[in-house]
Amino acid sequence: MEIRNLNSSAIRRAGYSAESRTLTIWFTSDPALGYDYYGVPAHIWQGLISTSSAGTYFHLHIEKQYGR
């Protein structure tokens, strides 16, 4: 799993496993607990780590589209 720290007020860090297509997000509100999102394509991961607003990207492209 590749893990990246994000410069975001909402998301502390995120990790992605290309093999299982699982995205794990640690929110700033509870940084010890990671939330898994399944079936996430690699281009969504790339979008999250390259956007200027990870929180907005999460809400628009991940939150309701991929199951936890």
Structural commentary:
- This protein has two helices and four strands, in the order E-E-E-E-H-H.
- By secondary structure, the protein is α+β, with helices and mostly antiparallel strands.
- Helix 1 (42-50) runs antiparallel to helix 2.
- Strands 1-2-3-4 form a four-stranded antiparallel β-sheet, covered by helices on one side.
- It has one domain.
- 21% of the residues are buried.
- 25% of the residues lie in helices and 32% in strands.
- Residues 7-66 form the KTSC domain.
- InterPro entries: KTSC_dom (IPR025309).
- This is KTSC domain-containing protein.
- It comes from Comamonas avium.
Jot down its keywords.
alpha+beta, 25% helix, KTSC domain-containing protein, KTSC_dom, globular, 68 residues
Low-confidence stretches: none
End-to-end gap: 17 Å
The DSSP helix count reads 2
- Main sheet characteristics: 4 strands, antiparallel
Summarize model confidence as the mean pLDDT. Answer: 95
Protein name: KTSC domain-containing protein
Domain KTSC: 7-66
